[in-house]
Amino acid sequence: MSATSVSACPACVAAPSAEAIAAARAEKASGIVLSLPTAHCAVCISDVERELMRVPGVRSARVNLTLKRVSVEAGPEAAPALLIERLGRIGYEAHELDPGLLSVTETDRRGRDLLMRLGVAGFAMMNVMLLSVAVWSGAEAATRDLFHWISAAIALPTLVFAGQPFFTSAWTSLKARRLGMDVPISLALILSSAISLYETIEGGEHAYFDAAVSLCFFLLAGRYLDYRSRAAARSAAEELAALEVPRAVRIGAAGDVTVPIAELAAGDLVRVKPGARMPVDGIVTEGASEIDRSLLTGETLPVRVDGGAAVSAGEVNLTGPLVVRVTAAGRDSSLHRMADLVAVAESAKNRYTSLADRMARAYSPSVHLLALGAFIGWMVQSGGDVRLAVNIASAVLIITCPCALALAVPAVVTAASGRLFRRGLLIKDGTALERLAEVDTVVFDKTGTLTMGTPRPVALDRHATPDLAIAAALAAGSAHPLSASLAAALREMGVTPAPVGDLREVPGEGMEATHAGRRVRLGRADWAGAEARDATATYLDTGDGKPARAFIFADRLRPGAEAAVATLKAAGKHVVLLSGDAEAPVADMARTLGIEEWRAAVRPEEKAAHVASLTGAGARVLMVGDGLNDTAALAGAHVSISPASALDAARVASDIVLLGQDLAPIAEAAKLAVTARRRIKQNFGLSLAYNTIAVPVALLGLATPLIAALAMSASSITVSLNALRLR
Amino acid sequence: MEMLVYLIPASLLLGGAGLVAFLWALRSRQFEDPEGDGQRFLSEDWDEHPKP
Predict the structure, then answer these.
(1) How far is the CA of A636 from the CAs of A24, A619, B12, in angstroms?
(2) Cα–Cα distances in Å, from A184 out to A18, A37, A199, A394, A683?
């Protein structure tokens, strides 16, 4: 499980400055927030809270099951990494969330504000409806006027208060010379309350206070649902962002100084500790080590570097300290160039118009035209009766008002994303589901996406027990990923490490020690005196003259990878595997999963280009990837998914984040998205059907407040119920 | 009809009480975790004595 916490936030572990910041934050005893993607029941709540309370220094822990998070109040001794490890031990996956909660409290406040307006509108609607029932059932003269006045007293302040979100948004869109959905809504609210007030003063028969208030209530409900699903996704995604602090250790005349990367210039010397991420592009001048390029290129095999080798920003230094001469920092580094590619691709994606937008674009002008037409028509017909014409025009506005339309999309999206969230998928973008429904081609990355990105030793039982004992002793001394994984696997097998002396790590080579008077080595092939094999492996030389033993590693498939690929293929999707890794492991993976089309050793630009060419050929591409080499492709695809363990940039570029380790929900999401889009279209159809019946009635001047109230409530309720079928 | 003089204020008052209760619940953050609150009541952790 510790491997998970490492991969969940590589930067936290890698960047020493990030750790320092985390420590500084903990000292202030501020809250730690952890995401708990697998928590789902009452037992989970008790387990997590009890386990966290046992950690010394923790003052309180409270699980929020809706958001799948736990907030912890703790002193400096309970660091997030420790809490994550403790939770891992009892079987709960946890990721640290950025506790810069400012934006979250901000969204909380806006959500509460909407909910409060919804509550006030609901209260007013109930009371006005009660009074209206009396009017509808035949109250007359003074009684009717009294009821109208009381309704007005309740409805008008309510509309002023609860209608604000619509008025402000309508005003903004009018200033920008556009006709959004909110313009007809505001117009209907204002016009109907004005005409009702006039009718009340004149002692008229019809007042639309009930319709205006219930219109406001239903629309606020849609707005709140929409807001809620977006806010939950956005804040969680924001917080998932790992602590990646761009700092570097510069070697100056006065010794080492930690400086922000922006202050580095080409020619500076920087020191990169083992386990840290390369802050800049550069050339190694001192030291030897191995570097992990997997996040940049998808290669699983660490690469050996020594003096003169070129390194790129974003790579992880594994074994020895390095001194690097900066060739490009900040804006010019390869990391940054990749980010620029993402920005270009992003702007292309923003051009997608959602179903609701397309609907609104046709809808608002026609509503205004209809109302205006009704007004003019009745003016002519009645010979200049303004009161009657305005009455009918406002009835038309109320009845055509997009109550059901405004609920149609948010209700479906909320139901669908709620269901996906329970399965561990976080929808970051409002239109992601719609785009996912259109997908016909799925492109997978290999390392870290289809696989866990953590190599595991295979066929350990083929080795003799004494060899394993020596390997265990040597591997335990290094933080190299292969060593760490080997040590963990041997510990699980119950191998007792052999007694060794003089254990030391030779940077860039491996571990060396003495055992029973002989020199033993675990490390690179040529160093341990072995023939290098065509696979990820480490070699053990026991110093007794026998040839070195190879420990072969294989990357583990992510759980659910096979099921996800099989289901996608069964659904008629074209599945492609693009990897930056070498040909052999990619071919092997493609065969295991039954993917016919694959390409190995693909560079990041080629990935993006491949996705673009697929798109050019008319395909709608879903890209699933995690590395920096995938970001441009993720941003360029029609819709994209990345696992929570992915690099920050990849998560930012993708529309959907997979919170758990299992890949199976992807196939499910694709299926659900199609259903969701069908429901949205059905909902549009339903509300249009209501309108085609109700609009002629309103145009003919036959619409009474009773008919308006019935049409509106009935269509809103049918639409919501239809959406709820998705849950 | 005189009853209306009492009944309408009474119904408004009752409705208003409901609204106040809702606003209070909203302010004391009772809508933050509807799912968790639904599940929490099943746990036996603090059945014997209240959470300290």
Answers:
(1) 38, 13, 56
(2) 50, 41, 22, 11, 20
Chain A residues touching residue B42 (CB < 8 angstroms):
42
Residue A525 CB neighbour total at 10 angstroms: 16
Q: Tokens 């025009």 appear where?
A: A393
What are the chain B neighbours of A115 within 8 Å (beta carbons)? 26, 31
Instruction: Give the count of Cβ contacts less than 8 A between chain A and B.
Output: 57
Instruction: Sort out which chain B residues have CB atoms less than 8 A from A154's CB and list them.
Output: 12
Residues of B with CB under 8 A from a CB of A: 1, 4, 8, 11-12, 15-16, 18-19, 22-23, 26, 31-36, 39-43, 45
CA B7-B13-B17 angle, to 5 degrees, is 145
Indicate the residue of B1, B23, B39 with minimum beta-carbon distance to A116: B23
- Give the residue among A573, A613, A619, A616 at the shortest CA–CA distance from A596: A573
**Residues in CB range of A595: below 8 A, 6 or more apart:** A444, A565, A575, A576, A577, A589
Residues found in chain B: 52
Dist CA A586 CA A583 (whole Å): 5
Do the chains contact at A146 and B4, CB–CB below 8 Å?
A: yes
What sign does the CA torsion over A590, A594, A599, A603 have? negative
Give me the pLDDT at residue A117, please. 93
Check CB contact under 8 Å for A65 and B19: no
Confidence at residue A244, expressed as pLDDT on a 0 to 100 scale? 42
Residues of chain B with Cβ-Cβ distance to A112 below 8 Å are 26, 31
Mean pLDDT by 10 residues, chain A (727 residues): 36 39 43 77 85 86 82 80 85 70 58 88 90 82 86 92 90 81 83 88 84 88 79 55 55 74 78 77 83 70 79 78 80 61 55 72 81 89 83 82 75 83 77 86 85 78 82 79 81 82 78 84 81 76 78 81 89 87 82 87 82 88 82 84 74 78 86 90 86 84 79 83 82
**Is the pTM of the predicted complex or chain greater than 0.80?**
no
Annotated active-site positions of A, please? 445
* Spacing of C-alpha A225 from chain mean position: 18
Chain-chain contact of A119 with B23 (C-beta, under 8 angstroms): yes
Q: Considering CB atoms only, which of A65, A112, A126 is closest to B39?
A: A65
pLDDT confidence of residue A4: 35
Q: How is residue A532 annotated by DSSP?
A: P
Which domains does chain A carry? 2-99 (3.30.70.100), 105-236+351-402+693-724 (no CATH), 247-332 (2.70.150.10), 415-452+558-674 (3.40.50.1000), 457-556 (3.40.1110.10)
Query: Running DSSP on this structure, what letter comes out for residue A559?
Result: T
List strand residue ranges (DSSP E) for A533-662, in order: 537-541, 549-557, 574-578, 597-599, 621-624, 639-643, 656-658
Picking from A45, A115, A130, the nearest residue to B39 by CB comes out as A45
Q: What pLDDT is stored for residue A26 in this prediction?
A: 40
